[in-house]
Design goal:
Blueprint: H1 9-15, E1 37-44, E2 50-60, E3 67-69, E4 72-85, E5 88-101, E6 112-122, E7 124-134, E8 137-150, E9 159-160, E10 164-171, E11 179-180, E12 183-187, E13 192-194, E14 198-206, E15 217-224, E16 230-238, E17 245-252, E18 259-268, E19 274-285, H2 305-308, H3 312-322, H4 328-335, H5 340-352, H6 358-373, H7 384-392, E20 397-401, E21 410-415, E22 422-428, E23 435-440
Parallel strand pairs: 13-19
Antiparallel strand pairs: 1-2, 2-6, 3-4, 4-5, 4-7, 7-8, 9-14, 10-12, 10-14, 11-12, 14-17, 15-16, 15-18, 18-19, 20-21, 21-22, 22-23
Length: about 450
């Protein structure tokens, strides 16, 4: 899909807020809502300080408004991409994805229009915010925000890229939009497959020549259902490998019931030790087979699939986020654990002992706190407002006082449904710092009824 680029940083930020609707005397209205699907993958960069990040996006052709032109009918999507590192906007771009047809009768068939965006990023914590708008109906808009860390791929041992799900992988021609390593990899950003499709995947393994010696590796590709049971397993030996290797395959989903699955790739050495791995969720929609009802009664001893591809560092980060939900005994137990397998088992038990759906709700709050309350190098979940937002949820009312004469900025959050009604008071004591909790009527929180005295509020 061709795109037209060329906007400076300031122009993008202003224009994304000021797009208007173009009027035509005759248009073909869209048959479905405008929905933007996005995904990303991290590959080895051009040097040891960067990673190559690819951002994928797609939308349905019949979700666009078509207007007449001299050659037939034209449509398009206006895409804006903003990339932040911590709180700083480091990259912005905006482009038009045009699409033309000669006859609108072709719109009866469902086709997804797909694109990608590539850039080299240094190590750090990033997020990207992508906005898509119907070219001729700018009020029809959708957006995605995704946070992700970037770490250059280590040269100390084998490692693996993220998994890219694709709708098709075939031999390609160099220079094409989706070309890499002799292949055209057409991304499937939603990771959704129906019964008549095959699930294609692409990944890369690096630094396979350890200490200048060649070694055989075993690649095991496993598909796990929503409770971690293996439904597909394939293995193949990669002999006489080079320094890096491309990992490509496909499998049919027509025998898989509707639901969420995880593809787990593991690279084992000759001692059967896992030296690199990567995992990613995908979705199968197969109405003829329905949903696997046995998922409701599956053994509780099986680990959550989300943990199977996590490194020990990622597991530690999850528990750091979850500490507000943990008891003192649980914190002590986790800190005694060593190695990824015990930590996977602990976290699985941790969330299964709580209300169904709490994990998803809790981490949605964490994501909001990290996005909204980060201050300098302090992540949002570690701030006072972030903690309160995670523990108690969204307040019913926020009374903001950002600039009052001879008084420090402060906020009062009110929760009507907690303990008959409670408040939290946050004061910005130091310019450039963070709002600190100075008073609350919640029985388990800091209470200072004289918080408005000099030295606190002034």
């Amino acid at each position: 899909m061709n795109s037209e680029r060329g906007w400076n940083l300031a122009a993008v930020v202003l224009l994304v807020l000021s797009l208007g609707t173009t009027s035509f005397s005759q248009v073909v209205e869209p048959a479905s809502p405008f929905r933007l699907m996005t995904d990303f993958c991290r590959f080895r960069g051009g040097d040891d300080k960067h990673a190559l990040v690819e951002i994928y996006y797609s939308f349905a052709r019949n979700s666009l408004t078509f207007a007449p032109d001299s050659a037939g009918w034209q449509a398009g999507a206006d895409i804006t991409l903003l990339i932040h590192q911590n709180d700083s906007l480091v990259h912005a771009d905006r482009w038009l994805v045009p699409y033309s047809i000669r006859d609108t009768s072709a719109l009866s068939s469902t086709i997804n229009l797909v694109g990608n965006y590539r850039m080299q990023l240094k190590e750090g914590e990033y997020s990207f915010f992508m906005v898509g708008r119907d070219r001729y109906r700018s009020e029809r808009v959708d957006s995605f925000r995704i946070g992700f860390p970037v770490k250059p791929f280590s040269a100390n041992g084998p490692n693996m890229s993220d998994i890219e799900f694709a709708s098709i992988i075939k031999r390609g021609e160099e220079g094409g939009q989706f070309y890499k390593n002799t292949l055209d990899v057409i991304p499937n950003p939603g990771g959704i497959y129906s019964e008549e499709q095959s699930c294609y995947y692409y990944a890369e393994a690096y630094n396979l020549l350890v200490a200048d010696t060649r070694s055989d590796y075993m690649l095991i590709a496993s598909v796990l259902d929503a409770v971690g049971r293996e439904v597909i397993s394939r293995d193949r030996t990669k002999r006489e490998v080079g320094e890096s290797s491309v990992l490509v395959d496909q499998f049919a989903v027509d025998k898989m019931k509707s639901g969420t699955y995880t593809l787990l790739l593991r690279l084992l050495d000759t001692a059967n030790t896992i030296v690199a791995q990567s995992g990613k969720k995908f979705f199968v929609y197969n109405p003829a087979l329905g949903v696997d009802s046995s998922l409701l009664t599956a053994s509780s001893s099986l680990p959550f699939t989300v943990y199977l591809a996590m490194s020990e560092e990622e597991l530690d980060q999850e528990f750091a986020w979850a500490r507000y939900e943990a008891t003192g005994d649980e914190i002590d137990r986790y800190e005694e654990l060593s190695g990824p397998e015990p930590k996977r088992a602990f976290l699985t038990e941790f969330w299964r002992n709580r209300m169904p759906g709490l994990r998803e709700e809790y981490f949605a709050r964490v994501e909001y706190a990290n996005r909204s309350f980060r201050t300098g190098t302090r992540e949002g979940y570690r701030t006072d407002r972030g903690r309160v937002r995670i523990v108690y949820g969204e307040p019913d009312d926020i009374d903001r006082h950002p600039s009052e004469t001879e008084r420090r900025p402060y906020e009062i959050w009110t929760y009507h449904q907690i303990q008959g009604g409670v408040i939290f008071v946050f004061v910005l004591k130091n310019p450039g710092g963070d709002y600190e909790l100075v008073h609350s009527t919640h029985r388990n929180e800091l209470r200072d009824d004289n918080w408005e005295r000099p030295g606190v509020a002034y």
